[in-house]
């Protein structure tokens, strides 16, 4: 290989372009160097700029560097078993691509990831979890006075984060578990979709969830609540809660019930609710029992049948939960429930009055447990609740200790299940197959 520098027009009276020529393997490569000079400023024998050329030293160093890069590329390609060509040598002279500067701050990346999930159609409640995780990461970074960086995040830092959340901020184990789960989702996204080189294996980030005691009302407590004398302002809240106890609806679903969700059975034997669950976006069909139908008819005013009308008077979830605790106390729901929590590595137990624990979701647990107690098969309950996996439904079955006791009495003492109450249908809800 030979490298030569020459003026394009050595006889010109004006500045002429300086070219680089390489001969390799019988082929020729010509490239402009980007320099121009008068013929009198160029030493053709030495192939260098003369002293009369402004900045001649830097210009000559540039020519030497170009020749050196070509020679180095020629040797490297041969050492690698390749055949140098004009094209491969030209590529060696191309400027190196600027390194891609990736965002490293985990707090910023979590926020960006949340927007990606929003664009992919994730539900608002799911996005809210990622917002909370981002806030905890931000607080931890402020606590230790340095940012959390994605590609250098290590198990040592992860243990420090868990220590901060568990001991300093006293988060519950399930809150820590949710944070770790969402953090792993972020790391998988960065590694698999954005090409980040992580310093750890995502699978090594672990946290343990714990089973939380599900609160529900017994048949007697449900009747006690139904017959309680309450202020008029609390009656609609009680009715919405009872409707969810009779149908198993989540708050997000009862909030948006409208006339289009009601259908009469073809044989005229009753009505059903057909709707798409807000949380899972699965279609569910629920038969309306006498108790549930009575509540709908109570609020079947003209203003609830028009466009945009809702079947029941539902307030915001926080308002509903606040009113529920008040009306449960007025109804005398004083049964003490043991609440166990892990705080700073210690299990703390305390007895809490039932009325302090009642929320809108208690209605769904009540429906599930009372349906099982009345003999509804778990497979049917799964369809009514809209669970994709029957294991989710079995979580409800695990907490029904009365159901276990009744089964043992039936098997060992020959006694049948007797947990039915006056004033309620013996079967709270029945499933109706969706068309």
Strand-helix topology:
Elements: E1 2-7, E2 16-24, E3 27-37, E4 42-43, E5 48-49, H1 56-79, H2 86-93, H3 106-119, H4 124-144, H5 155-168, H6 173-193, H7 219-227, H8 235-247, H9 251-254, E6 262-264, E7 271-276, E8 283-287, H10 290-298, H11 317-330, E9 336-343, E10 346-353, H12 360-373, H13 378-385, H14 390-398, H15 401-413
Antiparallel strand pairs: 1-2, 2-3, 4-5, 6-7, 7-8, 9-10
What features would you describe in this structure?
This protein is α+β, with helices and mostly antiparallel strands. The protein has three domains: about 1-95, no CATH class; about 105-205, Orthogonal Bundle (DNA polymerase, domain 1); about 220-415, Intergrase catalytic core (hpI Integrase, Chain A, Orthogonal Bundle). Helix content is about 45%, strand content about 15%. It contains 15 helices and ten strands. It has helices at about 55-80, 85-95, 105-120, 125-145, 155-170, 175-195, 220-225, 235-245, 250-255, 290-300, 315-330, 360-375, 380-385, 390-400, 400-415, and strands spanning about 1-5, 15-25, 25-35, 40-45, 50, 260-265, 270-275, 285, 335-345, 345-355. The strands form four sheets. Strands 1-2-3 form a three-stranded antiparallel β-sheet. The chain has a three-stranded antiparallel β-sheet with strand order 6-7-8. β9 (about 335-345) and β10 form a beta hairpin. α4 crosses α6 (about 175-195) and α8 packs across α12 (about 360-375). About 25% of the residues are buried. Residues about 415-425 and about 430-435 have low confidence and may be disordered. It holds the Pfam family Phage_integrase. Keywords: DNA recombination. It comes from Hymenobacter rubripertinctus. This is Tyr recombinase domain-containing protein. InterPro entries: Arm-DNA-bind_5 (IPR035386), DNA_brk_join_enz (IPR011010), Integrase-like_cat_sf (IPR013762), Integrase_catalytic (IPR002104), Tyrosine_recombinase_XerCD (IPR050090).
């Amino acid at each position: 290989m030979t490298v030569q520098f020459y003026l394009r027009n050595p006889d010109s009276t004006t500045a002429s372009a300086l070219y680089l020529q390489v001969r390799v393997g019988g082929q020729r490569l010509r490239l402009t160097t980007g320099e121009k000079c008068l013929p009198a400023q160029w030493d053709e024998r030495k192939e260098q700029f003369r002293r009369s050329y402004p900045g001649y030293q830097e210009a000559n160093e540039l020519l030497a560097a170009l020749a050196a890069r070509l020679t180095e590329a020629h040797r490297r390609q041969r050492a690698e078993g390749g055949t140098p060509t004009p094209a491969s040598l030209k590529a060696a002279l191309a400027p190196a691509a600027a390194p891609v500067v990736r965002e490293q701050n985990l707090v910023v990346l979590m926020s960006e990831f949340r927007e990606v999930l929003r664009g992919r159609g994730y539900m608002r409640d799911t996005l809210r979890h990622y917002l909370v995780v981002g806030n905890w990461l931000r607080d931890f970074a402020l606590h230790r006075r340095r940012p959390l960086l994605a590609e250098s995040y290590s198990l040592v830092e992860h243990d420090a984060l868990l220590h901060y959340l568990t001991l300093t901020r006293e988060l519950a184990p399930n809150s820590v578990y949710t944070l770790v789960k969402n953090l792993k989702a972020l790391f998988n996204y960065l590694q698999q979709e954005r090409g980040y080189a992580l310093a750890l294996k995502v699978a090594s980030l672990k946290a343990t969830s714990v089973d939380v005691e599900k609160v529900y009302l017994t048949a007697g407590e449900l009747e006690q609540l139904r017959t309680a004398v309450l202020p008029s302002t609390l009656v609609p809240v009680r009715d919405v809660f009872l409707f969810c106890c009779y149908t198993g609806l989540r708050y997000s679903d009862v909030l948006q019930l409208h006339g289009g969700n009601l259908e009469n059975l073809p044989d005229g034997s009753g009505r059903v609710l057909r709707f798409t669950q807000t949380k899972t976006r699965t279609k569910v069909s629920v038969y309306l029992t006498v108790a549930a139908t009575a509540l709908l008819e109570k609020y079947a005013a003209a203003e609830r049948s028009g466009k945009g009308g809702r079947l029941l008077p539902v307030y915001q979830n926080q308002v509903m939960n606040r009113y529920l605790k008040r009306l449960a106390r007025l109804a005398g729901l004083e049964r003490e429930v043991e609440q166990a929590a892990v705080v700073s590595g210690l299990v703390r137990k305390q007895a809490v009055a039932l009325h302090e624990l009642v929320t809108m979701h208690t209605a769904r647990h009540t429906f599930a447990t009372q349906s099982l107690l009345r003999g509804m098969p778990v497979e049917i309950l799964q369809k009514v609740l809209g669970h994709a996996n029957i294991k989710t439904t079995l979580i409800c079955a695990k907490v029904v200790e009365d159901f276990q006791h009744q089964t043992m009495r039936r098997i060992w003492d020959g006694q049948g299940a007797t947990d039915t109450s006056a004033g309620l249908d013996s079967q709270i809800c029945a499933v109706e197959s969706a068309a």
